[in-house]
Amino acid sequence: MRLVLASNNAKKLVELQTLFAPLGLELVTQGSLGIPEAEEPHVTFVENALEKARHAAAHAQSAAIADDSGLCVDTLGGSPGVLSARYATLFGRPKDDDENNRVLLEQMDDKEDRRARFVSALVAVRSADDPEPLIAFGRWDGVVLWEPRGEGGFGYDPLLFIPSLGKSVAELDAATKNAHSHRAIASQQMLALMREVWHLG
């Protein structure tokens, strides 16, 4: 079964291909099919993921899955939240991982409460008008560091420290990240849903 990933993020594709390998799905990016990116007008991860999944399914005329994810910081009222990928642009800076990290550190400069979490909402649909979208949600708790640590991963990985693992996300090897991450938690839920509802695997 072909599943269109409503993203052009190559690193996200690699992560999800690994996580969904047990089902034997053929995961392809929407960009490889010439599908433009969907608008993300909503304030919640779930609504944006559903929007993206429906958009990809409509253009590809096949099943699609979308991940909307980001970093939620308690003391910032949940920001950057759904704006995580373009957080820096809210402050007149370029859309860039390093800029996003710099802006976050500036916003956290005087904050003692550093609690935060990575959040992932995964939504899968069999078609654009599927009345029963599969929805999975993962949270990965940590604290925001005072400066970046590690070279791996992407996004805010260098800034989120996972106390239970004693490392920042960017310091983890891929296997460890794929075993513990917000996306891994959501993916395990999604695998179970696809087996139960779509009768895959």
What are the SSEs and their pairings?
Elements: E1 2-5, H1 10-20, E2 26-29, H2 45-60, E3 64-73, H3 97-107, E4 115-125, E5 134-144, E6 160-162, E7 167-168, H4 174-180, H5 182-197
Parallel strand pairs: 1-2, 1-3
Antiparallel strand pairs: 3-4, 4-5, 5-6, 6-7
Question: Could you describe the 3D structure shown?
Answer:
The protein is α/β, with parallel strands linked by helices. It has a single domain (2-197), classed as Maf protein (Alpha-Beta Complex), CATH 3.90.950. 30% of the residues lie in helices and 22% in strands. The protein has helices at residues 10-20, 45-60, 97-107, 174-180, 182-197; strands spanning 2-5, 26-29, 64-73, 115-125, 134-144, 160-162, 167-168. It has a seven-stranded mixed sheet. The chain starts with a strand and ends with a helix. The mean pLDDT is 95.
The number of strands is 7
Corresponding CATH architecture: Alpha-Beta Complex
Distance between the termini: 10 Å
User: What order do the strands of the largest sheet run in, or round the barrel if closed?
Assistant: 2-1-3-4-5-6-7
**Count of alpha/pi helices:** 5
Give start-end ranges of low-pLDDT stretches: none
* Helicity level: 25-40%
Strand content: 15-25%
Catalytic activity: dITP + H2O = dIMP + diphosphate + H(+); ITP + H2O = IMP + diphosphate + H(+); XTP + H2O = XMP + diphosphate + H(+)
Keywords: Hydrolase, Magnesium, Metal-binding, Nucleotide metabolism, Nucleotide-binding
Subunit structure: Homodimer.
Enzyme class: hydrolase
